[in-house]
Write a structure and sequence with these properties.
Number of strands: 18
Oligomer: single chain
Amino acid sequence: MQLSSEVDVAIIGAGAAGLGAYCALADHGLSVIILEARDRIGGRALTRYLPEGIVFDAGCEWLHSADHNAFVQIASASHFDVADAGVHWGEQTYDINFPLSEQREFYAASEAFYARLELAAQIPDDSSAAVWLEQGNRWNPLIEAVSCYVNGSELSGVSVHDVESYFETGVNWRVRRGYGALISAYGACCNVALGTHVSAVDYSARKIQVETSRGTLRARRVIYTLSTALTVEQVVRFHPALPAKIAASMGLPLGYAEKVMLAINEPEAFPEEGHLFGATDRTATGSYDLRPLGQPCIEAFFGGSFARELEAAGELASFAIDELVALLGTTFRNKVRPCATSCWARDRYAKGSYSHALPGHSQDRESLAAPVDGRLFFAGEATSRQFFSTAHGAYESGLRAANEVADSLGLALEGATGLPLGASQGFRTASVA
């Protein structure tokens, strides 16, 4: 497509943050465009539809804190069914390698650990979450494994202050047709220039110049939403330079979380919404959701450095199957086949899964979110103080950035909920680029 030569607001990145910002701004007399390097919208949200009707969310999957999550309302407005399926991450469906008595011991050890973190967060000086493990506790490896799933990082790389800033109600739902599909549908009416790489943003003059693979665009305001990994690499170069943003991004690296979808024969032999840990005595293990939403599959989840190693070696599926065979018996190998994997660590437009703050760097989220020169604004899950690492956190950061843009232009975004354009709340439908 041919880009306009000038717009009011250019948004870099068509993930949840960029789409949320667009939907908040576009109905207020402003010309707005999203510049997206990928050939699709959604960012780290991606649904893949597999044989046998299996829905695979390779990226974000859970509507975390669903009772506070804006995407629940967006799902309703977009006619997407939400499943109140609950979560079973801490349970073991089969009494194979994790008897109930040991599960109770693990829960007690985990609760005690997080109670210590809560107290540690009251200390002004930040620290590594690993410091607060009870030395020699039998359940430390599994507590560490859960951190890898949740944070994408081992506890040694996780800030106590950041962990305690995160807001979670414990209500976690799924989108039946896929969370990635929901976010893609949400952004379908946005004006997005796909396949458009932004290489530089020059804000030294009155009008900001945005250099793209499709020419130069001038804008009054820019909202930047790319991942911290891309910011550190300076995929988009700013003039004047923004060393404080690079430093903040270095304190908020992307962790690693990878998934494998395994189709299973004879699915009726497995319980719906079941769960298994591959092992309970080591951190390098998988978390396995059995028949999520009743589908004929098992979803394997890996986190932290182990996820990165398996994905780099192309061994996600083979490790998952071997670990499940060790639990369920040799005959299981003939009943399962891999059908899809994620690869966020190698994704050139992400370079990881979601952010965590290094010890001593929890305040970097606020630094990363701060506007520059009253004309550059920053959004994305890493800029969210309470909902980092989530799609709804990214979305809400987009609304925040949109309001900052409006304030800088002397506008008021009253009634700008960020709901889908064209929905019943009175938003008009924007043209598709």
